[in-house]
């Protein structure tokens, strides 16, 4: 399965919080993260969630599909003292990942992700992104694409910052390269 996932020639990645776009280079994704994505994604799709203990003991991958598109969210356990600030919650989202391997369903996924993404205003306060902003006005990039929305919870886990972007890309490559169904 790993070789099928790595045969994708390109995926456009967009960070929805600020509109940055990248071309994902499958060869640049570390093999360990690709293997983790290929192992975790089917479990998360089957059970709704998969512990990411091989990468981090406090993270879980939640995933679901709609047609050919994938939506996955990485959650982290709320560490003290943050847990005291959020009674009744066990975890927080770190990143939201959307993958559209084909154009079918891509616009619906895009709209859903844009609707739920926040950014920071000039004062540093969280605000929803504007779907009318120049970087979003034309809609999603051509398929296949990977959309990522970074949540404030990402800041709680700075030790993941070095590898999380590549793991997001590994999830997209796994989905586009052979795990997609529908």
Mean pLDDT: 88
Could you give the distance between the termini?
Answer: 18 Å
| Number of contiguous helices | 5
Biggest sheet, spatial arrangement of strands: 2-1-9-6-5-4-3
Q: What's the SSE pattern?
A: HEEHEEEHEHEEEH
* 3D shape: globular
Strand tally, please?
9
Radius of gyration: 16 Å
Q: How many structural units, i.e. domains?
A: 1
Structural class: alpha+beta
**pLDDT below 50 for ≥5 consecutive residues: which ranges?**
1-6
Q: DSSP strand (E) fraction?
A: 25-35%
Main sheet attributes: strand count, strand direction, barrel closure: 7 strands, mixed
Range of helix content: 25-40%
Could you give the topology of this structure?
Blueprint: H1 2-5, E1 11-15, E2 20-24, H2 31-47, E3 49-51, E4 59-66, E5 69-77, H3 82-85, E6 91-100, H4 106-116, E7 118-120, E8 126-128, E9 145-150, H5 164-179
Parallel strand pairs: 1-9
Antiparallel strand pairs: 1-2, 3-4, 4-5, 5-6, 6-9, 7-8
Helix pairs in contact: 2-5
Walk me through the structure.
The protein is an alpha+beta fold and 182 residues long. A hairpin with a 4-residue loop joins strand 1 and strand 2 (20-24). The chain has one domain. The radius of gyration is 16 Å and the shape is globular. The model is unreliable at 1-6 (pLDDT under 50). Helix 2 (31-47) packs across helix 5. It is 29% helix and 29% strand. The strands form two sheets. The protein has a seven-stranded mixed beta sheet with strand order 2-1-9-6-5-4-3, with helices on both faces. Strands 7-8 form a two-stranded antiparallel sheet. The two termini are 18 Å apart. It contains five helices and nine strands, in the order H-E-E-H-E-E-E-H-E-H-E-E-E-H. It has helices spanning 2-5, 31-47, 82-85, 106-116, 164-179; strands at 11-15, 20-24, 49-51, 59-66, 69-77, 91-100, 118-120, 126-128, 145-150.
């Amino acid at each position: 399965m790993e070789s099928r996932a790595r045969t994708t020639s390109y995926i456009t990645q967009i960070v929805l919080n600020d509109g940055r776009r990248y071309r994902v280079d499958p060869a640049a994704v570390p093999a360990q993260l690709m293997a983790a994505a290929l192992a975790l994604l089917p479990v998360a799709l089957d059970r709704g969630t998969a512990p990411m203990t091989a990468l981090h003991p406090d993270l879980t991958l939640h995933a679901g599909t709609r047609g050919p598109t994938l939506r996955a969210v990485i959650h982290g356990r709320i560490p003290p003292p943050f847990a005291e600030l959020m009674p009744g919650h066990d975890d927080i989202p770190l990143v939201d990942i959307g993958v559209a391997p084909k154009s079918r369903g891509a616009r619906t996924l895009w709209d859903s992700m844009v609707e739920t993404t926040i950014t920071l205003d000039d004062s540093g306060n969280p605000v929803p992104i504007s779907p009318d902003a120049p970087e979003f006005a034309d809609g999603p990039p051509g398929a296949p694409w990977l959309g990522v929305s970074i949540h404030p919870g990402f800041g709680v886990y700075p030790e993941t910052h070095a590898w999380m972007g590549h793991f997001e890309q590994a999830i997209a490559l796994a989905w586009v390269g052979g795990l997609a169904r529908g």
